[in-house]
Amino acid sequence: MRLGIFGGTFNPIHMGHLITAEQVREAFDLDRMLFVPSARPPHKPSPDLIDGAHRLEMARLAVSDNPRFDVSAIEHERSGRSYSVETAEAFRREWGREAALYFVLGIDAFLEIATWREPKKLFALCNFVINSRPGFPFDQAHQVLSDILGIAPPTDAQSIALPHGRTLWFHDVFPIGISSTLIRDRLNRGRSVKYLLPGSVESYILSHHLYSDKENRS
Known about the structure:
Layout: E1 2-8, H1 15-27, E2 32-37, H2 52-63, E3 69-71, H3 74-77, H4 84-95, E4 100-106, H5 107-110, H6 119-125, E5 127-131, H7 141-149, E6 159-161, E7 167-171, H8 180-188, H9 199-207
Parallel strand pairs: 1-2, 1-4, 2-3, 4-5, 5-7
Antiparallel strand pairs: 6-7
Helix pairs in contact: 2-9, 4-6
């Protein structure tokens, strides 16, 4: 089993998330891509973060037409903060030692991984796929790897050997100018979000009056 782990707040999930996930799934021949909405992210306290039940349901709606995509509620089933290392440990127990786990995240998030809980253990549990983001050169990741693992890869390396037989890949994805922040702002101002996210997710947001202040609710 080759399993992708794609975490995030998904507040809300949008076409950029889905396009990126499909590119990674295809490039790395993954059997499944698991979207893992965080329940209580320790690094993203935000008054705009809506209830986890809504974010889980929107993610399920968004992936429903792709048989290789699935949604995990694992971080909502645990108490306390949502830590990636605990999620990876749980998937390793569930899928066994032979499963190949691919932890998928953007280079901007990867540059903060030293502040996560037990990052060294996370590197031991999973392969990593680091996706490109405009304004964040991949070589910025090398200092992170040096600080945490003592690795000094060549500046132009496309893949890096990690401890315990894991591998880190740098993966270029289509530049997509869509963000959850943009969508929340447009919804709050009563602007259209059509084609920025799946129609089923847009309908869910509108029917539950999510991301709209009182003046825009109807």
